[in-house]
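Quick review question:
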Protein backbone atom coordinates (compact mmCIF):
# COMPACT_ATOMS: atom_id res chain seq x y z
CA UNK A 1 0.00 0.00 0.00
CA UNK A 2 1.36 3.40 -0.98
CA UNK A 3 1.91 6.11 1.62
CA UNK A 4 -0.08 9.21 0.62
CA UNK A 5 0.54 12.90 1.28
CA UNK A 6 -0.94 16.05 -0.23
CA UNK A 7 2.55 17.36 -0.95
CA UNK A 8 5.73 15.38 -1.47
CA UNK A 9 9.07 17.17 -1.69
CA UNK A 10 12.00 15.30 -3.22
CA UNK A 11 15.27 16.58 -1.80
CA UNK A 12 16.32 17.70 1.70
CA UNK A 13 18.74 20.41 0.63
CA UNK A 14 18.17 24.07 1.49
CA UNK A 15 15.26 24.42 -0.97
CA UNK A 16 13.45 21.35 0.34
CA UNK A 17 14.05 22.28 3.97
CA UNK A 18 12.79 25.81 3.37
CA UNK A 19 9.53 24.54 1.87
CA UNK A 20 9.31 21.88 4.57
CA UNK A 21 9.44 24.57 7.25
CA UNK A 22 6.62 26.55 5.63
CA UNK A 23 4.56 23.37 5.25
CA UNK A 24 5.18 22.41 8.87
CA UNK A 25 4.30 25.89 10.12
CA UNK A 26 1.13 25.88 8.00
CA UNK A 27 0.04 22.41 9.20
CA UNK A 28 0.05 21.04 5.67
CA UNK A 29 0.16 17.33 4.85
CA UNK A 30 3.68 16.94 3.43
CA UNK A 31 6.73 14.70 3.42
CA UNK A 32 10.31 15.31 2.28
CA UNK A 33 12.06 12.30 0.75
CA UNK A 34 15.85 12.16 0.40
CA UNK A 35 18.29 9.43 -0.55
CA UNK A 36 20.96 10.45 1.98
CA UNK A 37 20.95 9.88 5.73
CA UNK A 38 21.10 13.61 6.60
CA UNK A 39 20.01 16.89 5.02
CA UNK A 40 22.15 18.91 2.62
CA UNK A 41 24.01 15.97 1.10
CA UNK A 42 25.30 18.03 -1.88
CA UNK A 43 27.08 20.46 0.42
CA UNK A 44 28.81 17.61 2.24
CA UNK A 45 31.11 17.23 -0.76
CA UNK A 46 30.61 20.40 -2.83
CA UNK A 47 31.92 22.97 -3.51
CA UNK A 48 35.13 21.07 -4.04
CA UNK A 49 37.42 23.45 -2.13
CA UNK A 50 34.86 23.91 0.66
CA UNK A 51 34.54 27.70 0.70
CA UNK A 52 31.25 29.34 -0.24
CA UNK A 53 30.89 32.47 -2.36
CA UNK A 54 27.71 33.43 -0.48
CA UNK A 55 28.58 36.22 1.93
CA UNK A 56 28.04 36.20 5.68
CA UNK A 57 28.13 39.90 6.63
CA UNK A 58 27.30 39.89 10.32
CA UNK A 59 27.49 43.60 11.18
CA UNK A 60 25.43 46.35 9.54
CA UNK A 61 24.53 49.94 10.51
CA UNK A 62 20.76 49.42 10.69
CA UNK A 63 18.77 47.49 13.31
CA UNK A 64 15.99 45.87 11.25
CA UNK A 65 16.22 42.10 10.93
CA UNK A 66 14.87 42.30 7.37
CA UNK A 67 17.56 44.77 6.34
CA UNK A 68 20.28 42.60 7.82
CA UNK A 69 18.99 39.58 5.90
CA UNK A 70 20.03 41.48 2.77
CA UNK A 71 23.62 40.70 3.74
CA UNK A 72 23.09 37.21 5.17
CA UNK A 73 23.24 34.93 2.15
CA UNK A 74 23.12 31.59 3.95
CA UNK A 75 20.29 31.61 6.49
CA UNK A 76 16.97 30.02 5.68
CA UNK A 77 13.77 31.80 6.68
CA UNK A 78 12.24 31.04 10.07
CA UNK A 79 11.25 32.76 13.32
CA UNK A 80 14.00 31.21 15.47
CA UNK A 81 16.84 33.76 15.94
CA UNK A 82 19.23 30.96 16.93
CA UNK A 83 18.94 29.70 13.34
CA UNK A 84 20.69 32.69 11.82
CA UNK A 85 23.85 31.66 10.02
CA UNK A 86 25.91 34.33 11.79
CA UNK A 87 25.90 31.99 14.81
CA UNK A 88 27.59 29.28 12.73
CA UNK A 89 30.49 31.18 11.15
CA UNK A 90 32.39 34.43 11.58
CA UNK A 91 33.89 34.24 8.08
CA UNK A 92 32.68 36.53 5.30
CA UNK A 93 32.97 33.56 2.91
CA UNK A 94 32.12 30.58 5.13
CA UNK A 95 33.23 26.99 4.99
CA UNK A 96 30.66 24.63 3.42
CA UNK A 97 30.90 22.39 6.51
CA UNK A 98 29.33 25.19 8.55
CA UNK A 99 26.39 25.24 6.17
CA UNK A 100 26.02 21.47 6.57
CA UNK A 101 25.95 21.86 10.34
CA UNK A 102 23.41 24.66 9.98
CA UNK A 103 21.06 22.53 7.85
CA UNK A 104 21.27 19.68 10.36
CA UNK A 105 20.06 22.03 13.09
CA UNK A 106 17.42 23.66 10.89
CA UNK A 107 15.81 20.32 10.08
CA UNK A 108 15.97 19.07 13.70
CA UNK A 109 14.96 22.19 15.63
CA UNK A 110 11.99 22.95 13.37
CA UNK A 111 10.71 19.34 13.35
CA UNK A 112 10.70 19.12 9.57
CA UNK A 113 9.36 15.79 8.33
CA UNK A 114 12.08 14.08 6.29
CA UNK A 115 12.24 10.44 5.19
CA UNK A 116 15.95 9.74 4.75
CA UNK A 117 17.69 6.82 3.02
CA UNK A 118 14.97 6.67 0.37
CA UNK A 119 15.98 7.19 -3.24
CA UNK A 120 13.13 7.66 -5.69
CA UNK A 121 13.81 5.78 -8.93
CA UNK A 122 10.53 6.15 -10.85
CA UNK A 123 7.67 8.66 -11.00
CA UNK A 124 4.42 8.36 -12.94
CA UNK A 125 1.02 10.01 -12.82
CA UNK A 126 -2.31 8.24 -13.00
CA UNK A 127 -5.83 8.38 -11.68
CA UNK A 128 -6.77 6.92 -8.32
CA UNK A 129 -8.16 3.38 -8.25
CA UNK A 130 -11.71 4.74 -7.95
CA UNK A 131 -11.22 6.82 -11.10
CA UNK A 132 -10.80 10.10 -9.25
CA UNK A 133 -8.24 12.86 -9.72
CA UNK A 134 -4.77 12.10 -10.98
CA UNK A 135 -1.98 11.57 -8.50
CA UNK A 136 1.75 11.16 -8.70
CA UNK A 137 3.01 7.65 -7.92
CA UNK A 138 6.59 7.40 -6.67
CA UNK A 139 8.62 4.22 -6.27
CA UNK A 140 11.78 4.02 -4.20
CA UNK A 141 14.74 1.79 -4.88
CA UNK A 142 13.86 -0.12 -1.71
CA UNK A 143 10.39 -0.87 -3.10
CA UNK A 144 8.51 1.64 -0.94
CA UNK A 145 5.69 3.48 -2.70
CA UNK A 146 4.29 6.97 -2.23
CA UNK A 147 1.49 9.00 -3.77
CA UNK A 148 0.76 12.71 -3.72
CA UNK A 149 -1.42 15.34 -5.29
CA UNK A 150 1.40 17.87 -5.72
CA UNK A 151 5.04 16.99 -6.43
CA UNK A 152 7.79 19.45 -5.51
CA UNK A 153 11.21 18.73 -6.96
CA UNK A 154 14.04 20.17 -4.83
CA UNK A 155 16.81 17.95 -6.14
CA UNK A 156 19.37 20.72 -6.74
CA UNK A 157 22.43 20.06 -8.89
CA UNK A 158 22.02 16.48 -10.17
CA UNK A 159 25.26 15.83 -12.02
CA UNK A 160 27.98 17.64 -13.92
CA UNK A 161 27.13 18.83 -17.41
CA UNK A 162 30.13 17.81 -19.48
CA UNK A 163 30.91 19.00 -23.02
CA UNK A 164 29.94 16.73 -25.88
CA UNK A 165 33.42 16.33 -27.39
CA UNK A 166 35.60 13.33 -28.31
CA UNK A 167 37.92 12.20 -25.53
CA UNK A 168 36.01 13.80 -22.69
CA UNK A 169 36.62 10.67 -20.58
CA UNK A 170 40.39 11.31 -20.34
CA UNK A 171 39.89 14.54 -18.38
CA UNK A 172 39.23 15.10 -14.70
CA UNK A 173 36.14 17.05 -13.65
CA UNK A 174 35.44 19.76 -11.11
CA UNK A 175 33.48 17.44 -8.82
CA UNK A 176 36.09 14.68 -8.66
CA UNK A 177 39.50 16.18 -9.48
CA UNK A 178 42.42 15.75 -7.10
CA UNK A 179 42.67 18.77 -4.79
CA UNK A 180 46.10 17.99 -3.26
CA UNK A 181 48.11 20.85 -4.73
CA UNK A 182 51.40 18.97 -4.42
CA UNK A 183 50.20 16.67 -7.20
CA UNK A 184 50.20 19.68 -9.56
CA UNK A 185 53.61 21.12 -8.70
CA UNK A 186 55.47 21.99 -11.92
CA UNK A 187 52.62 20.64 -14.07
CA UNK A 188 50.83 22.31 -16.98
CA UNK A 189 47.06 22.41 -16.51
CA UNK A 190 44.19 23.13 -18.90
CA UNK A 191 40.89 24.12 -17.30
CA UNK A 192 37.79 24.08 -19.51
CA UNK A 193 35.02 26.46 -18.41
CA UNK A 194 34.47 30.13 -17.66
CA UNK A 195 32.42 30.30 -14.47
CA UNK A 196 33.25 30.47 -10.80
CA UNK A 197 34.09 26.77 -10.59
CA UNK A 198 36.78 27.12 -13.28
CA UNK A 199 38.26 30.18 -11.58
CA UNK A 200 38.03 28.48 -8.17
CA UNK A 201 40.12 25.55 -9.40
CA UNK A 202 42.62 27.84 -11.13
CA UNK A 203 43.08 29.97 -8.03
CA UNK A 204 43.62 26.87 -5.92
CA UNK A 205 46.42 25.71 -8.21
CA UNK A 206 47.88 29.09 -9.20
CA UNK A 207 50.88 28.86 -6.87
CA UNK A 208 51.73 25.23 -7.66
CA UNK A 209 51.11 24.56 -11.35
CA UNK A 210 53.79 25.85 -13.69
CA UNK A 211 51.25 26.95 -16.29
CA UNK A 212 47.46 27.18 -16.24
CA UNK A 213 45.37 27.92 -19.32
CA UNK A 214 41.63 28.49 -18.89
CA UNK A 215 39.89 27.60 -22.17
CA UNK A 216 36.69 29.59 -21.91
CA UNK A 217 35.46 30.28 -25.48
CA UNK A 218 34.12 33.71 -24.44
CA UNK A 219 35.41 36.66 -22.38
CA UNK A 220 34.84 36.53 -18.61
CA UNK A 221 31.67 38.04 -17.19
CA UNK A 222 32.34 39.80 -13.91
CA UNK A 223 29.66 39.99 -11.24
CA UNK A 224 30.68 43.55 -10.38
CA UNK A 225 29.72 44.61 -13.93
CA UNK A 226 26.77 42.32 -14.66
CA UNK A 227 25.39 42.51 -11.09
CA UNK A 228 24.49 38.82 -11.45
CA UNK A 229 25.77 36.88 -8.48
CA UNK A 230 26.45 33.81 -10.59
CA UNK A 231 29.06 35.54 -12.74
CA UNK A 232 32.75 35.66 -11.78
CA UNK A 233 33.22 36.92 -8.25
CA UNK A 234 36.18 38.96 -7.04
CA UNK A 235 37.08 36.25 -4.51
CA UNK A 236 37.89 33.97 -7.47
CA UNK A 237 39.78 36.59 -9.47
CA UNK A 238 43.44 35.74 -8.68
CA UNK A 239 44.09 33.93 -11.95
CA UNK A 240 42.77 36.83 -14.05
CA UNK A 241 44.90 39.25 -12.07
CA UNK A 242 47.97 37.11 -12.78
CA UNK A 243 47.07 36.89 -16.47
CA UNK A 244 46.84 40.66 -16.87
CA UNK A 245 50.12 41.11 -14.98
CA UNK A 246 51.70 38.51 -17.28
CA UNK A 247 52.54 35.91 -14.67
CA UNK A 248 52.29 33.06 -17.21
CA UNK A 249 48.78 31.79 -16.40
CA UNK A 250 46.24 32.78 -19.06
CA UNK A 251 42.52 33.04 -19.83
CA UNK A 252 41.82 32.13 -23.47
CA UNK A 253 38.71 32.57 -25.62
CA UNK A 254 39.20 29.18 -27.23
CA UNK A 255 36.69 26.40 -27.83
CA UNK A 256 37.95 22.93 -26.92
CA UNK A 257 36.89 20.45 -29.62
CA UNK A 258 38.81 17.27 -28.79
CA UNK A 259 40.89 15.63 -26.05
CA UNK A 260 43.32 12.77 -26.65
CA UNK A 261 45.63 10.88 -24.30
CA UNK A 262 49.27 10.66 -25.43
CA UNK A 263 51.62 7.73 -24.82
CA UNK A 264 53.63 9.78 -22.34
CA UNK A 265 50.48 10.40 -20.25
CA UNK A 266 49.95 14.01 -21.32
CA UNK A 267 46.66 15.09 -22.87
CA UNK A 268 46.43 16.82 -26.24
CA UNK A 269 43.85 19.62 -26.20
CA UNK A 270 42.64 20.53 -29.69
CA UNK A 271 40.85 23.85 -29.86
CA UNK A 272 39.55 26.48 -32.26
CA UNK A 273 39.50 30.23 -31.87
CA UNK A 274 37.27 32.69 -33.71
CA UNK A 275 39.81 35.36 -34.72
CA UNK A 276 37.79 38.20 -36.18
CA UNK A 277 40.74 40.45 -35.37
CA UNK A 278 42.91 38.71 -38.02
CA UNK A 279 43.26 39.89 -41.60
CA UNK A 280 41.26 38.31 -43.06
CA UNK A 281 38.93 37.17 -40.20
CA UNK A 282 38.72 33.43 -39.70
CA UNK A 283 39.02 30.45 -37.35
CA UNK A 284 42.40 29.44 -35.95
CA UNK A 285 42.99 25.83 -34.83
CA UNK A 286 45.80 24.27 -32.79
CA UNK A 287 46.63 21.36 -30.49
CA UNK A 288 48.57 21.88 -27.25
CA UNK A 289 49.61 19.17 -24.75
CA UNK A 290 48.97 19.53 -21.00
CA UNK A 291 49.81 17.34 -18.04
CA UNK A 292 46.31 17.71 -16.60
CA UNK A 293 42.90 18.70 -17.97
CA UNK A 294 40.03 19.61 -15.64
CA UNK A 295 36.48 20.17 -16.92
CA UNK A 296 34.55 22.85 -15.00
CA UNK A 297 31.52 23.21 -17.22
CA UNK A 298 28.66 23.47 -14.76
CA UNK A 299 25.83 21.32 -13.48
CA UNK A 300 22.60 19.77 -14.72
CA UNK A 301 19.48 20.46 -12.65
CA UNK A 302 17.12 17.76 -13.84
CA UNK A 303 17.25 13.98 -14.16
CA UNK A 304 14.73 12.97 -16.80
CA UNK A 305 15.43 9.25 -16.38
CA UNK A 306 13.21 8.90 -13.29
CA UNK A 307 10.01 10.11 -15.01
CA UNK A 308 7.46 8.14 -17.00
CA UNK A 309 7.54 9.28 -20.65
CA UNK A 310 4.18 11.08 -20.48
CA UNK A 311 5.25 13.28 -17.54
CA UNK A 312 8.90 13.79 -18.41
CA UNK A 313 9.59 17.52 -17.97
CA UNK A 314 10.68 19.46 -21.01
CA UNK A 315 14.12 21.02 -20.70
CA UNK A 316 16.07 24.03 -21.93
CA UNK A 317 19.74 25.02 -22.26
CA UNK A 318 20.57 21.61 -23.77
CA UNK A 319 18.99 19.69 -20.90
CA UNK A 320 20.45 21.83 -18.12
CA UNK A 321 17.18 23.20 -16.67
CA UNK A 322 13.53 22.13 -16.60
CA UNK A 323 11.15 24.40 -18.53
CA UNK A 324 9.03 26.24 -15.96
CA UNK A 325 6.05 28.58 -15.97
CA UNK A 326 6.03 31.91 -14.15
CA UNK A 327 4.88 30.09 -10.98
CA UNK A 328 7.66 27.46 -11.24
CA UNK A 329 5.23 24.76 -12.40
CA UNK A 330 6.72 22.42 -15.00
CA UNK A 331 5.55 23.73 -18.37
CA UNK A 332 4.22 20.40 -19.65
CA UNK A 333 3.22 18.66 -16.37
CA UNK A 334 0.44 19.94 -14.13
CA UNK A 335 0.96 19.94 -10.37
CA UNK A 336 4.73 19.37 -10.61
CA UNK A 337 7.01 22.20 -9.51
CA UNK A 338 10.76 22.74 -9.31
CA UNK A 339 12.26 24.79 -6.51
CA UNK A 340 15.57 25.58 -4.88
CA UNK A 341 18.47 26.31 -7.22
CA UNK A 342 16.53 25.03 -10.28
CA UNK A 343 14.35 28.14 -9.93
CA UNK A 344 17.09 29.95 -11.85
CA UNK A 345 15.58 28.34 -14.93
CA UNK A 346 13.37 31.45 -15.23
CA UNK A 347 15.73 33.96 -13.62
CA UNK A 348 19.27 34.67 -14.78
CA UNK A 349 19.42 38.22 -13.42
CA UNK A 350 18.74 38.00 -9.69
CA UNK A 351 19.73 35.33 -7.13
CA UNK A 352 17.33 32.43 -7.80
CA UNK A 353 20.25 30.00 -8.04
CA UNK A 354 21.44 30.78 -4.51
CA UNK A 355 20.01 30.36 -1.01
CA UNK A 356 19.68 34.10 -0.45
CA UNK A 357 17.41 34.29 -3.50
CA UNK A 358 15.44 31.08 -3.68
CA UNK A 359 14.50 31.18 0.01
CA UNK A 360 12.13 34.01 -0.99
CA UNK A 361 10.98 32.27 -4.16
CA UNK A 362 10.10 29.21 -2.06
CA UNK A 363 8.06 31.38 0.33
CA UNK A 364 6.17 32.87 -2.61
CA UNK A 365 5.61 29.40 -4.07
CA UNK A 366 4.25 28.17 -0.75
CA UNK A 367 1.59 30.89 -0.83
CA UNK A 368 0.77 30.11 -4.46
CA UNK A 369 0.37 26.41 -3.64
CA UNK A 370 -1.84 26.92 -0.62
CA UNK A 371 -4.03 29.32 -2.60
CA UNK A 372 -4.43 26.86 -5.47
CA UNK A 373 -4.75 23.61 -3.56
CA UNK A 374 -5.91 24.64 -0.07
CA UNK A 375 -8.06 27.70 -0.94
CA UNK A 376 -6.00 30.04 1.27
CA UNK A 377 -5.90 33.47 -0.45
CA UNK A 378 -2.58 35.14 -1.19
CA UNK A 379 -1.55 37.44 1.69
CA UNK A 380 -2.79 40.98 1.06
CA UNK A 381 -2.72 44.20 3.10
CA UNK A 382 -5.52 46.73 2.69
CA UNK A 383 -5.04 50.50 2.94
CA UNK A 384 -7.52 53.39 2.89
CA UNK A 385 -7.81 55.25 -0.41
CA UNK A 386 -5.11 57.68 0.62
CA UNK A 387 -1.68 57.69 -0.99
CA UNK A 388 0.19 58.65 2.18
CA UNK A 389 -0.06 55.24 3.84
CA UNK A 390 0.59 53.16 0.72
CA UNK A 391 3.42 55.44 -0.43
CA UNK A 392 5.11 55.13 2.97
CA UNK A 393 4.71 51.37 2.78
CA UNK A 394 6.35 51.16 -0.64
CA UNK A 395 9.41 53.15 0.41
CA UNK A 396 9.68 51.24 3.70
CA UNK A 397 9.70 47.97 1.75
CA UNK A 398 12.22 49.27 -0.76
CA UNK A 399 14.44 50.37 2.14
CA UNK A 400 14.38 47.25 4.30
CA UNK A 401 12.84 44.19 2.60
CA UNK A 402 15.45 41.55 1.78
CA UNK A 403 13.22 39.72 -0.72
CA UNK A 404 12.90 42.41 -3.40
CA UNK A 405 16.51 43.43 -2.72
CA UNK A 406 18.01 39.97 -3.30
CA UNK A 407 15.53 39.23 -6.07
CA UNK A 408 15.80 42.62 -7.74
CA UNK A 409 14.15 42.84 -11.18
CA UNK A 410 12.44 39.46 -10.58
CA UNK A 411 10.20 39.90 -7.53
CA UNK A 412 8.05 42.95 -6.96
CA UNK A 413 5.30 44.36 -4.77
CA UNK A 414 1.87 45.00 -6.29
CA UNK A 415 -0.49 47.87 -5.52
CA UNK A 416 -4.06 47.65 -6.81
CA UNK A 417 -6.19 50.80 -6.68
CA UNK A 418 -9.75 49.51 -7.34
CA UNK A 419 -11.93 51.56 -9.66
CA UNK A 420 -14.79 51.18 -7.18
CA UNK A 421 -14.38 54.11 -4.71
CA UNK A 422 -15.85 52.02 -1.89
CA UNK A 423 -13.00 49.49 -2.05
CA UNK A 424 -9.65 49.83 -0.32
CA UNK A 425 -6.20 49.81 -1.90
CA UNK A 426 -4.67 46.30 -1.95
CA UNK A 427 -0.95 45.64 -1.37
CA UNK A 428 0.65 42.28 -2.30
CA UNK A 429 4.28 41.57 -1.41
CA UNK A 430 6.92 39.54 -3.26
CA UNK A 431 5.39 38.23 -6.47
CA UNK A 432 7.34 37.44 -9.66
CA UNK A 433 6.83 40.33 -12.06
CA UNK A 434 6.19 37.93 -14.96
CA UNK A 435 3.59 36.09 -12.85
CA UNK A 436 1.81 39.35 -12.00
CA UNK A 437 1.44 40.19 -15.68
CA UNK A 438 0.21 36.65 -16.35
CA UNK A 439 -2.74 36.84 -13.92
CA UNK A 440 -6.15 38.20 -14.91
CA UNK A 441 -6.83 39.30 -11.31
CA UNK A 442 -4.09 41.89 -11.89
CA UNK A 443 -4.26 42.58 -15.62
CA UNK A 444 -8.01 43.31 -15.34
CA UNK A 445 -7.29 46.25 -13.03
CA UNK A 446 -7.59 49.84 -14.24
CA UNK A 447 -4.90 51.01 -11.81
CA UNK A 448 -2.06 48.59 -11.12
CA UNK A 449 1.40 49.51 -9.83
CA UNK A 450 4.45 47.22 -9.56
CA UNK A 451 7.34 48.31 -7.36
CA UNK A 452 10.68 46.53 -7.60
CA UNK A 453 14.37 47.37 -7.45
CA UNK A 454 16.33 47.80 -10.67
CA UNK A 455 19.71 48.95 -11.93
CA UNK A 456 19.94 51.79 -14.42
CA UNK A 457 23.31 51.41 -16.13
CA UNK A 458 21.59 51.04 -19.51
CA UNK A 459 20.65 54.72 -19.28
CA UNK A 460 24.31 55.61 -19.82
CA UNK A 461 24.82 53.75 -23.09
CA UNK A 462 28.25 52.23 -23.67
CA UNK A 463 29.63 54.36 -20.84
CA UNK A 464 27.58 52.28 -18.40
CA UNK A 465 29.46 49.04 -19.18
CA UNK A 466 32.12 49.55 -16.50
CA UNK A 467 30.19 50.01 -13.28
CA UNK A 468 33.34 50.08 -11.12
CA UNK A 469 34.23 53.48 -12.61
CA UNK A 470 30.98 55.02 -11.30
CA UNK A 471 32.64 56.56 -8.25
CA UNK A 472 31.25 60.10 -8.18
CA UNK A 473 27.98 61.25 -6.64
CA UNK A 474 24.98 60.58 -8.89
CA UNK A 475 22.95 63.48 -10.24
CA UNK A 476 20.28 63.23 -7.57
CA UNK A 477 18.38 66.07 -9.21
CA UNK A 478 17.16 63.64 -11.87
CA UNK A 479 15.82 60.30 -10.66
CA UNK A 480 15.95 58.93 -14.23
CA UNK A 481 19.76 59.16 -14.31
CA UNK A 482 20.55 56.69 -11.54
CA UNK A 483 22.79 53.68 -12.11
CA UNK A 484 22.67 51.53 -8.96
CA UNK A 485 19.73 49.73 -7.38
CA UNK A 486 16.75 51.94 -6.69
CA UNK A 487 12.96 51.50 -6.66
CA UNK A 488 11.11 51.58 -9.97
CA UNK A 489 7.34 52.05 -9.91
CA UNK A 490 5.58 50.95 -13.08
CA UNK A 491 1.95 51.81 -13.87
CA UNK A 492 -0.29 49.42 -15.82
CA UNK A 493 -3.78 50.09 -17.14
CA UNK A 494 -5.66 46.83 -17.83
CA UNK A 495 -2.34 45.01 -18.29
CA UNK A 496 -0.83 47.63 -20.60
CA UNK A 497 2.37 49.41 -19.60
CA UNK A 498 1.56 53.13 -19.44
CA UNK A 499 4.24 54.91 -17.44
CA UNK A 500 6.96 54.50 -14.84
CA UNK A 501 9.04 56.51 -12.43
CA UNK A 502 12.23 55.86 -10.54
CA UNK A 503 13.50 56.90 -7.15
CA UNK A 504 16.88 58.40 -6.28
CA UNK A 505 19.55 55.87 -5.32
CA UNK A 506 21.21 55.67 -1.91
CA UNK A 507 24.72 54.68 -0.85
CA UNK A 508 23.33 52.26 1.73
CA UNK A 509 20.23 51.22 -0.22
CA UNK A 510 17.96 53.04 2.22
CA UNK A 511 15.43 55.26 0.49
CA UNK A 512 13.93 56.56 3.71
CA UNK A 513 16.96 58.26 5.34
CA UNK A 514 19.65 60.86 4.71
CA UNK A 515 22.94 60.19 2.94
CA UNK A 516 24.22 63.59 4.14
CA UNK A 517 22.87 66.25 6.55
CA UNK A 518 21.08 68.42 3.96
CA UNK A 519 19.49 65.43 2.22
CA UNK A 520 15.69 65.25 2.13
CA UNK A 521 14.81 61.83 3.60
CA UNK A 522 11.26 62.07 2.24
CA UNK A 523 12.18 62.84 -1.38
CA UNK A 524 11.47 59.31 -2.61
CA UNK A 525 8.17 59.16 -0.76
CA UNK A 526 7.22 62.36 -2.54
CA UNK A 527 8.29 60.96 -5.92
CA UNK A 528 6.16 57.84 -5.43
CA UNK A 529 3.05 59.62 -4.14
CA UNK A 530 3.13 62.30 -6.85
CA UNK A 531 3.51 59.65 -9.55
CA UNK A 532 0.64 57.51 -8.25
CA UNK A 533 -1.57 60.58 -7.90
CA UNK A 534 -0.78 61.63 -11.47
CA UNK A 535 -1.84 58.17 -12.71
CA UNK A 536 -5.00 57.75 -10.59
CA UNK A 537 -6.06 61.30 -9.68
CA UNK A 538 -6.94 59.79 -6.33
CA UNK A 539 -6.23 63.03 -4.44
CA UNK A 540 -6.78 65.80 -7.01
CA UNK A 541 -4.55 68.85 -6.68
CA UNK A 542 -2.36 67.45 -3.91
CA UNK A 543 1.43 67.54 -4.27
CA UNK A 544 4.15 66.17 -2.01
CA UNK A 545 7.59 67.74 -1.61
CA UNK A 546 10.05 65.64 -3.62
CA UNK A 547 13.11 67.91 -4.03
CA UNK A 548 16.31 66.04 -3.15
CA UNK A 549 17.46 68.58 -0.53
CA UNK A 550 15.72 69.62 2.68
CA UNK A 551 15.33 73.10 1.17
CA UNK A 552 16.12 74.59 -2.22
CA UNK A 553 18.37 77.15 -0.54
CA UNK A 554 20.77 74.33 0.42
CA UNK A 555 21.73 73.78 -3.21
CA UNK A 556 23.72 77.02 -3.53
CA UNK A 557 25.64 76.21 -0.36
CA UNK A 558 26.60 72.72 -1.51
CA UNK A 559 27.22 73.09 -5.25
CA UNK A 560 29.81 75.15 -7.16
CA UNK A 561 29.62 75.19 -10.97
CA UNK A 562 32.83 74.62 -12.93
CA UNK A 563 34.57 77.78 -14.08
CA UNK A 564 35.36 78.58 -17.71
CA UNK A 565 38.82 77.07 -17.60
CA UNK A 566 37.55 73.86 -15.99
CA UNK A 567 34.70 73.62 -18.52
CA UNK A 568 37.29 73.77 -21.30
CA UNK A 569 38.79 70.57 -19.95
CA UNK A 570 35.64 68.48 -20.18
CA UNK A 571 36.44 65.23 -22.03
CA UNK A 572 35.37 65.06 -25.67
CA UNK A 573 32.96 62.19 -24.99
CA UNK A 574 30.99 64.44 -22.63
CA UNK A 575 29.48 66.12 -25.69
CA UNK A 576 28.60 62.77 -27.29
CA UNK A 577 26.56 61.63 -24.31
CA UNK A 578 22.83 61.94 -23.91
CA UNK A 579 20.89 63.30 -20.98
CA UNK A 580 22.36 60.86 -18.45
CA UNK A 581 26.07 61.43 -17.89
CA UNK A 582 28.03 58.59 -16.22
CA UNK A 583 29.43 59.49 -12.83
CA UNK A 584 32.85 58.28 -13.92
CA UNK A 585 33.88 61.42 -15.81
CA UNK A 586 37.10 63.29 -14.99
CA UNK A 587 38.49 66.55 -16.30
CA UNK A 588 41.31 66.42 -18.82
CA UNK A 589 44.73 67.48 -17.43
CA UNK A 590 45.66 71.15 -17.75
CA UNK A 591 48.67 70.43 -19.92
CA UNK A 592 48.25 67.00 -21.51
CA UNK A 593 51.32 67.39 -23.76
CA UNK A 594 53.53 67.71 -20.69
CA UNK A 595 52.20 64.40 -19.39
CA UNK A 596 52.18 62.36 -22.59
CA UNK A 597 55.03 62.47 -25.11
CA UNK A 598 53.56 62.55 -28.60
CA UNK A 599 55.18 59.79 -30.70
CA UNK A 600 56.70 60.84 -33.98
CA UNK A 601 55.11 59.53 -37.15
CA UNK A 602 57.35 57.63 -39.58
CA UNK A 603 57.40 60.48 -42.09
CA UNK A 604 58.44 62.97 -39.37
CA UNK A 605 61.67 61.13 -38.58
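Suggested answer, residue by residue:
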Amino acid sequence: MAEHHEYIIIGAGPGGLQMGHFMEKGNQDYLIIDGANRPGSFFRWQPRHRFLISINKRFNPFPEHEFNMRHDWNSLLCDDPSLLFKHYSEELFPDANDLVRYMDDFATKLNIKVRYNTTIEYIEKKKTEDGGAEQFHLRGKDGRKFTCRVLLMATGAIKEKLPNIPGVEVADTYAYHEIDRKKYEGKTVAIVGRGNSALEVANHLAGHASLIHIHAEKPPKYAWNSHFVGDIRAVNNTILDMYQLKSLHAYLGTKVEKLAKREDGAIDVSFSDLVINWTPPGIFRATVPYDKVILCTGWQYIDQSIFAPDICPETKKDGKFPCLRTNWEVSNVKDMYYMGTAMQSIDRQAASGFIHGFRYNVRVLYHMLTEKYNKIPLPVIEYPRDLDAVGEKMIARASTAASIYQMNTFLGDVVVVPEDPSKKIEYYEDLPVAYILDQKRFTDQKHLFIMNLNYGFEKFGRWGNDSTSFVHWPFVGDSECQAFLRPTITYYNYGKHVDETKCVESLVLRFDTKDFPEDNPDKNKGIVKNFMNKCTNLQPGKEWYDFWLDSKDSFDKMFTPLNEEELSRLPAEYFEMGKCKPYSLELMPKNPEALVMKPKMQDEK
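Why it works: The longest helix spans residues 355-374. The chain is about 20% helix and 20% strand.
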